[in-house]
């Protein structure tokens, strides 16, 4: 399946990926200013830039083939789509027990800062059907969305 | 420390209605002009640190930023400009030479903008480059006066030539003055477009050997990174005598830019200053130059053209003629607007000649002496667009070098701070955190795009003149007319006035 | 008004050429008829002819055709000629009154042989003649050398070509090659020297077109000592042929590949050896490439070459009938004098039509 891979050597550490991810998953996905300034709680990004300069790279859910979070989920909210392979958290079923956060080997699942008690994670922007917004907005092509096993 | 009298050069304006406090600007400004105020939970800035490189402006996701000239005015004085006064404040504090990056920015005349090109009307047809072949292939190197043939066959081969698909090359920029990613971008763009890039005096990094056939390797006064394999690696060798931004001045790469890779490439200890002497200490006269030219030819079995790069200075025509007679195959002349990684400000702004006049004078002189074919002429020193190139070739150049324009294609915003090593665009820096910002894949594509765009434009202009091969433009000064020039300037340029 | 040489005057034109490959001579009547048919391609501001084999009595002598605008020029020129050459015969070139022809200069011709002592060290007779021509044209005011080759001559002036033919009584000459030119200059000071053909030694060129590479060609030729006083393309083309064929002994096909060079895309398709040859030709002689529209006919005592620019931006038609070879701007101009040629063709851009006398094979 297509995944987002980081190319550490070109990551400028700007965190624009985070900014745009947060917007895309906010109440105002088409208006960055409203998303940040009007929405009551600050939108949370589902991608996180890890950094220890000069090293930096963006990390988000790896959509593991054998995803531990789906197994650990007590409510069946965390599911891997059998067709696309995307691991998605059905927020209507998520009870916010955070077992997934505990088991994710990449630390890619977070608490939603929006107040409701759910786990928040990368959905590969699967609802917009195109390129994930982090990849789209990275100024330096430090993120790629590809089938290949990048860098392995 | 006493009070500094320096005031900011730029004003950072942040539109608070738009700023989302994302801190992208904070992370991107290597000058630390944007600051995150933890207490206020918002971004603020220090104008005094800003150099107007526009990195933050370009990356700000909400277009909240504008950089302006700082509005503070000194009392009006036609003689004492703000720059003149501020320079004195700086020197009064530092006691040092003023340093700067990039080329001469003073308002001297730009002769390209006083030259107009011709086009065909009625008496001969213009040519549509989309329908007819339009040929820009260019050979650089010594051409024999005549072709020796026997029984329909060549008796001897041409002397070695550089073959360019477009008469443009990336000028010398060393590893050290610019980042490896910048060089990789240019090298790959050169390969893609069939032109050359030039190593400058910084040696050849191991990753760049694969671009050999698109490489001109430079031999400069510091002889950094020069060894047999290096000489063999390129398609041509260039002896650097001078550069337009600092004629008569050597180079100085401060030790902090000499990291492990630079040190290995330049073959000097890590962390030491790399000092290129002002002259080559084995070249104090033209005979000495001849010796070096032939040493390099010997070393490479006469298989590569050897060029000499000089800055345009007052006696340029005679100097160029001497260099041609000393055996150079290519002469590169760098005008006073040529860029640099670091130069004394006063030298940059006051020494040298406009490349247009230097080129015209040299081409005329070499033709008068009947030796124009012995040597190819490459000029640089602020070629800004394809029309400048067409004008340069009509004045007599074989090809042009572009340096500043190439860097601009990679993102340079001409902030002139290359000497600080804090280039926010990852170009004129060795700081790994900044170098990362220039992805050479993107860089190569942008630089190659620029070359192809200019290639198309040159073809359009040629077609308009009814010419379908670049060689018919070379030295064809009838295709030029001068506007707003004195008789003396017209005669040096060898062009008629507009309307004549 | 500035005259030709002081200013560059673009023009359109008609050209025509006839040769008998066996060297048999025929009168100038046909060429006059042929060029007259293309009357509308000229505008009465220039016409002329070159004829070969017309002076069988003086085959070894250089025939100098001169125009004088004033008596003083004639005296100075004759002084110069007498000092360098033995003049075997001289006299006025016969003309007849033609109503449309006005302000004709005095036309004079001399049959001369170089004095051996006139030759500089290593100088050939041809070079002496070239030097003399350059001297007269640039140094003697009011004098102009119209032609200077052996057993040939040029006749030209301001007027329609057919009137010029009548004026110079060309039907009374018999030659084995005739070239003609009718000119349509965009403006002209009406100077007879500025009309075509342009000649040097026994080269003569008639040319239709305006080459955009003129400035590049000119400055290259100047490096080899040519002085381009006329500022015409024809002059530049003549000198280019002279440089390549006479001075540098370049084979004819290479000279042609220089002036109308094959495109790089065609060179890339050649076998490696030819590829290298043509690459070298273009790299070395790029500045001689003629760019822009042209069709030319080059005449010499060995034969003719007709050539189009490589894009074929100007018309050129060729035909053959028996021993005769015809080339002209328009097919009608050939059919006017040879209604049913055996073969008629339109040569492709850059592809020469070469006609050589049967006995004397090579143009160089
Ligand atoms: S947007 Fe790209 S360059 Fe910026 S932090 Fe994210 S991955 Fe790195
Ligand atoms: S990058 Fe723009 S929006 Fe983000 S903090 Fe800076 S000014 Fe504000
Ligand atoms: S120096 Fe550059 S990045 Fe820093 S504030 Fe100024 S313009 Fe922005
Ligand atoms: S290379 Fe970098 S430091 Fe130098 S002028 Fe350009 S942007 Fe500024």
Q: How is the biggest beta sheet of chain A arranged?
A: 2 strands, antiparallel
Q: What is the distance, rounded to the nearest whole angstrom, between the alpha carbons of the first and last residues of chain A?
A: 15 Å
Percentage beta strand of chain A: 15-25%
Overall pLDDT metric of chain C: 90
Number of strands of chain C: 18
> What's the SSE pattern of chain C?
EEHEEHEEHEEHEEEEHHHHHEEEEHEE
Task: Write the CATH fold name of chain A.
Answer: Alpha-Beta Plaits
Q: What is the H-and-E element order of chain A?
A: EHHEEHEEHEEHE
CATH superfamily of the largest domain in chain C, called what? Answer: Aminohydrolase, N-terminal nucleophile (Ntn) domain
- Spatial strand order of the main sheet of chain A: 1-8
Number of helices of chain C: 10
CATH architecture of chain A: 2-Layer Sandwich
What is the count of structural domains of chain A?
1
**Protein structure class of chain A:** alpha+beta
CATH fold-level assignment of the largest domain in chain C? Glutamine Phosphoribosylpyrophosphate, subunit 1, domain 1
Largest interface: B-C, 40 and 48 residues
Ligand inventory: iron/sulfur cluster
């Amino acid at each position: 399946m297509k995944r987002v891979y980081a190319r550490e050597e070109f990551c400028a550490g700007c965190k624009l990926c985070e900014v745009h991810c947060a917007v895309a998953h906010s109440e105002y996905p088409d208006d960055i200013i409203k998303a940040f300034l009007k929405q009551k709680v600050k939108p949370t990004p589902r991608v996180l830039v890890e950094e220890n300069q000069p090293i930096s790279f963006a990390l988000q859910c790896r959509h593991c083939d054998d995803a531990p979070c789906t197994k650990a989920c007590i409510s069946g909210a965390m599911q891997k789509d059998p067709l696309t392979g995307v691991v998605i958290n059905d927020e209507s079923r998520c009870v916010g027990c955070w077992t997934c956060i505990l088991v994710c080997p990449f630390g890619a699942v977070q608490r939603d800062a929006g107040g409701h008690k759910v786990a928040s994670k990368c959905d590969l922007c699967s609802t917009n059907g195109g390129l994930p917004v982090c990849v789209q907005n990275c100024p330096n092509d430090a993120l790629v969305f590809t089938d290949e096993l990048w860098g392995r | 420390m006493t009070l500094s009298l320096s005031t900011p050069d730029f004003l950072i304006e942040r539109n608070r209605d738009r700023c989302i406090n994302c801190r992208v600007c904070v992370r991107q400004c290597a000058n630390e002009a944007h600051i995150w105020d933890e207490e206020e939970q918002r971004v603020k800035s220090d104008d005094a640190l800003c150099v107007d490189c526009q990195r933050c402006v370009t990356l700000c996701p909400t277009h909240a930023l504008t950089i302006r000239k700082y509005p503070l005015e000194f009392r009006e004085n036609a003689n004492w400009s703000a720059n003149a006064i501020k320079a004195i404040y700086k020197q009064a504090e530092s006691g040092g030479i003023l340093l700067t990056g990039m080329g001469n920015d003073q308002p001297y005349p730009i002769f390209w903008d006083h030259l107009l090109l011709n086009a065909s009307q009625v008496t001969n047809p213009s040519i549509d480059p989309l329908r007819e072949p339009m040929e820009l292939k260019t050979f650089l190197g010594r051409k024999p006066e005549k072709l020796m043939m026997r029984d329909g066959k060549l008796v001897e081969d041409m002397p070695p030539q550089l073959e360019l698909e477009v008469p443009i090359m990336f000028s010398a920029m060393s590893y050290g003055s610019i980042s490896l990613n910048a060089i990789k971008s240019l090298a790959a763009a050169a390969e893609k477009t069939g032109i050359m890039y030039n190593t400058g005096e910084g040696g050849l990094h191991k990753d760049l050997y694969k671009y050999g056939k698109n490489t001109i390797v430079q031999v400069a006064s510091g002889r950094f990174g020069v060894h047999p394999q290096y000489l063999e690696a390129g398609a041509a060798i260039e002896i650097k005598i001078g550069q337009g931004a600092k004629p008569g001045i050597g180079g100085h790469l401060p030790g902090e830019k000499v990291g492990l890779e630079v040190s290995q490439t330049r073959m000097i200890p890590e962390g030491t200053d790399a000092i290129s002497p002002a002259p080559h200490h084995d070249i104090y006269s033209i005979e000495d130059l001849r010796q070096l030219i032939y040493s390099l030819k010997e070393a490479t079995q006469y298989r590569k053209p050897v060029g000499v790069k000089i800055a345009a200075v007052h006696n340029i025509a005679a100097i160029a003629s001497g260099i041609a007679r000393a055996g150079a195959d290519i002469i590169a002349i760098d005008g006073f607007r040529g860029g640099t990684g670091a130069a004394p400000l006063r030298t940059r702004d006051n020494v040298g000649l406009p490349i247009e006049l230097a080129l015209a004078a040299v081409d005329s002189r070499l033709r008068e002496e009947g030796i124009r074919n012995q040597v190819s002429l490459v000029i640089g020193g602020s070629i800004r667009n394809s029309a400048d190139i067409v004008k340069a070739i009509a004045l007599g150049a074989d090809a042009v070098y572009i340096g500043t324009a190439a860097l601009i294609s990679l993102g340079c915003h001409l902030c002139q701070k290359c000497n600080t090593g804090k280039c926010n665009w990852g170009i004129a820096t060795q700081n790994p955190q900044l170098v990362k910002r220039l992805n050479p894949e993107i860089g190569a594509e942008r630089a190659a795009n620029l070359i192809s765009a200019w290639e198309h434009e040159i073809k359009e202009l040629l077609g308009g003149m009814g010419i379908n091969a670049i060689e018919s433009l070379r030295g064809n000064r009838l295709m030029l007319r001068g506007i707003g020039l004195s008789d003396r300037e017209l005669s040096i340029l060898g062009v008629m006035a507009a309307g004549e | 008004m500035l005259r030709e040489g002081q200013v560059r005057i673009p023009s359109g034109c008609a050209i025509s050429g006839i040769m008998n490959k066996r060297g048999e001579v025929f009168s100038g009547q046909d060429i006059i008829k042929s060029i007259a048919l293309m009357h509308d391609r000229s505008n009465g501001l220039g016409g002329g002819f070159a004829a070969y084999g017309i002076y069988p009595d003086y085959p070894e002598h250089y025939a100098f055709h001169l125009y004088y605008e004033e008596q003083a020029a004639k005296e100075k020129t004759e002084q110069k000629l007498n000092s360098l050459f033995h003049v075997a015969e001289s006299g006025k070139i016969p003309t007849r009154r033609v109503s449309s022809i006005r302000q004709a200069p005095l036309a004079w011709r001399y049959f001369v042989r170089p004095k051996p002592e006139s030759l500089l060290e290593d100088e050939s007779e041809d070079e002496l003649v070239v030097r003399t021509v350059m001297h007269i044209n640039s140094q003697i005011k009011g004098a102009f050398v119209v032609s200077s080759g052996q057993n040939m001559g040029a006749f030209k002036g301001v007027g329609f070509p057919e009137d010029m033919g009548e004026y110079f009584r060309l039907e009374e000459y018999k030659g084995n090659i005739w070239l003609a030119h009718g000119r349509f200059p965009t403006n002209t000071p009406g100077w007879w020297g500025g009309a075509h053909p342009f000649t040097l030694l026994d080269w003569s060129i008639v040319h239709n077109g305006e080459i955009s590479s003129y400035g590049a060609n000119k400055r290259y030729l100047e490096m080899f000592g040519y002085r381009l006083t006329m500022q015409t393309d024809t002059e530049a083309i003549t000198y280019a042929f002279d440089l390549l064929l006479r001075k540098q002994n370049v084979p004819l096909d290479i000279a042609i590949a220089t002036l109308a060079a094959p495109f790089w895309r065609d060179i890339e398709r050649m076998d490696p050896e030819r590829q290298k040859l043509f690459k070298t030709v273009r790299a070395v002689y790029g500045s001689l490439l003629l760019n822009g529209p042209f069709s030319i006919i080059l005449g010499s005592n060995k034969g003719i070459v007709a050539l189009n620019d490589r894009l074929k931006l100007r018309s050129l038609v060729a035909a053959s009938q028996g021993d005769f070879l015809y080339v002209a701007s328009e097919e009608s101009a050939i059919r006017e004098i040879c209604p049913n040629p055996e073969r008629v063709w339109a040569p492709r851009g850059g592809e020469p039509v070469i006609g050589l006398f049967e006995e004397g094979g090579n143009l160089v």
